[in-house]
Design brief:
It comes from Petrotoga mobilis (strain DSM 10674 / SJ95). α8 links the parallel β10 and β11. The strands form two sheets. Strands 1, 2, 3, 4, 5, 14, 15 and 16 form an eight-stranded mixed β-sheet that branches. An eight-stranded parallel β-sheet has the order 6-7-8-9-10-11-12-13. The protein is α/β, with parallel strands linked by helices. Helix content is 35%, strand content 23%. It is built from 15 helices and 16 strands. It folds into two domains: 116 residues, Roll (Urease, subunit C, domain 1), CATH 2.30.40.10; 290 residues, TIM Barrel (Alpha-Beta Barrel). The protein binds N-(iminomethyl)-L-glutamic acid and zinc ion. The site of N-(iminomethyl)-L-glutamic acid (NIG) has 14 residues, from α3. N-(iminomethyl)-L-glutamic acid binds next to α3.
Length: 428
Amino acid sequence: MAIDMSEKATLIIKNISNLITMRGPNRPRKKEEMSEIGLIKNGIIAASKDKIIYVGSGDLPKDIEIAQDAKIINAQGKTVTPGLIDSHTHLVHGGSREYELFKKLEGESYLDILSSGGGIYDTVESTKKASFDELLKKAEKSLNRMLSYGVTTVEAKSGYGLDDFDTELKQLEVIKELNRIHPIDLVPTFLGAHAIPKKYQGNVDKFVDILITEMIPYVAEKNLAKFCDVFCEKGVFSVDQSRKILSAAKEHGLFLKIHADEIEPLGGTELAAELGCVSADHLVGASDEGLKKMAENNVIATLLPTTTFFLQSEKYANARKMIELGIPIALSTDYNPGSSPTENLQLVMTFGAIKLHMNPKEIITSVTINAACALKLEDKIGSLEVGKKADMAIFDVPNIEYLIYHFGVNHTQTVIKNGEVHDIAVVS
Ligand SMILES: N=CN[C@@H](CCC(=O)O)C(=O)O
Ligand SMILES: [Zn+2]
């Protein structure tokens, strides 16, 4: 096992029944690699402040110095994984849309609700009305929940201001502030192209122009986002409009994501391959041709099965076909007030098994190293290896199969973020 003896251990987790390291190359894992989780039985892991300095089994080598006030955790009977990564969320928003669930139960579709001025537009109004502090407090509560589920890094999008740039910026500033005050690391994404603003419904190209010439350059220049995203969907942004927006973002140095073929097979998957998006997300309606192109161009598929569930759709993304084609998969909550109001990534993992037919090892890969790659953070997080961040979750479960099987509850006992210990109240 690799070892760094230059610093004293400040945290040791020992007697770990199942230590899931995810060790291996710092790149997206595909095909059979998605089932290589680097399991160590009777594992031990040591960190010096926020960095991992040792990963192995049995005892710590004698030559590692232990700090006097080192924290030692006994993880007998437990399972330890890299801190989970939620790589697609709409974390910062005002209000809620519980009424929409019941409209959908009465037969209205998500896109019907959106085209009649509800859905995302409803949240745009609530987010405009909410103060910076109100948005901050609400998102902080969600982040606390996410941390409690074992999540240590979260992507967060704007997208509830649209043409109201001040609201878009307010969301991005809230994300920046949360990054400062909350243990979870946040990765900001600009999603001004989340719906056609009501004012531009007859003139979408004008809004695309504003996005390209004003909003994206400003967001990039002020370093307010790492990624740019577009909702490419029937009745929202077309493939051509999405191409224009994402190409401009690329020119301004932003990495790309796309909400692609979520409901209708429009061609967002093909566009993701053409532009070299880091990830294409949703993909329920993706064409076989589009998927082949994604595989050829190393685009990660971020799948969001709780969204499909909550939209009450019969058809889920074809994860097995994607894995067969060599597309790396990340799994995420898509936490948002309309189509996936849950912060529970453990629940998403269960959906990964039951609805996407992924095996437990593929599922763990999808919420650790592949999710890290979907955020371009694979050099820092996603696996437990010397030199990487001390971000880990200790689950009170005998194996990862159990974590996925006993569903809808929280199995986290302790979360380690940047080497800091956060105890989570579990019922045992
Ligand atoms: N589909 C577009 N955006 C979100 C939903 C946002 C909302 O409904 O507020 C999604 O990824 O599911
Ligand atoms: Zn989304």
